Amino acid sequence: MITIAVEDPIAADIVALLEAHLAFAHEVTPPDHVHALDVEALRGPQITFCTARDHGVLLGVGALRDLGGGRGEIKSMHTAAAARGRGVGRQLVAHLLDIARAQTMRWVGLETGTYEAFAPARSLYASMGFEECPPFDEYRDNPYSVCMSLRLTN
């Protein structure tokens, strides 16, 4: 049974998974185009950081950043390699969208990569109603990133 909860990202197992997430991002994306957040950034006041666990075993992580003005951004989505194919990412995104609605956000965006390694992420987001959109906030149009967004109804 998967349990999703808000946690502080400083626990050792979380740090290890976030390090794997950053390593993956740097492995498949040019350095100037990696937008993944580190542990300290994920502890910021505008971030709600969540974990997915099965009987205490960390399966995945994800965060919601409050951009202000009724807008949010999904950040740092990563599922442990051993847990892929179990619907962890889908459950995390659904939970983060519930948090966004509870915080009266009307729009949620995200940025992900364009390389084949990011195809499962793009497919997941599209299956949950996200559509490609122009770059927002600090993102700029480039061949390595795609932005996606979803309008929320409360």
TL;DR of this structure?
This protein is of the alpha+beta class and 154 residues long. It contains four helices and seven strands. The chain is globular, with a radius of gyration of 14 Å.
User: Residue-averaged pLDDT, rounded?
Assistant: 94
Report the portion of residues in β strands.
25-35%
Number of strands: 7
Query: Given the structure, what is the number of helices?
Result: 4
Task: Outline the structure in words.
The structure is a single chain. The protein is an alpha+beta fold. The protein has helices spanning 12-28, 39-42, 88-102, 119-127, and strands spanning 2-6, 47-54, 57-68, 71-79, 107-113, 131-133, 145-151. It has a seven-stranded mixed beta sheet with strand order 1-2-3-4-5-7-6, with helices on both faces. β4, α3 (88-102) and β5 form a beta-alpha-beta unit.
Keywords:
154 residues; alpha+beta; seven-stranded mixed beta sheet; 7 strands
Break the fold down into its secondary structure elements and pairings.
Layout lengths: L1 E5 L5 H17 L10 H4 L4 E8 L2 E12 L2 E9 L8 H15 L4 E7 L5 H9 L3 E3 L11 E7 L3
Parallel strand pairs: 4-5
Antiparallel strand pairs: 1-2, 2-3, 3-4, 5-7, 6-7
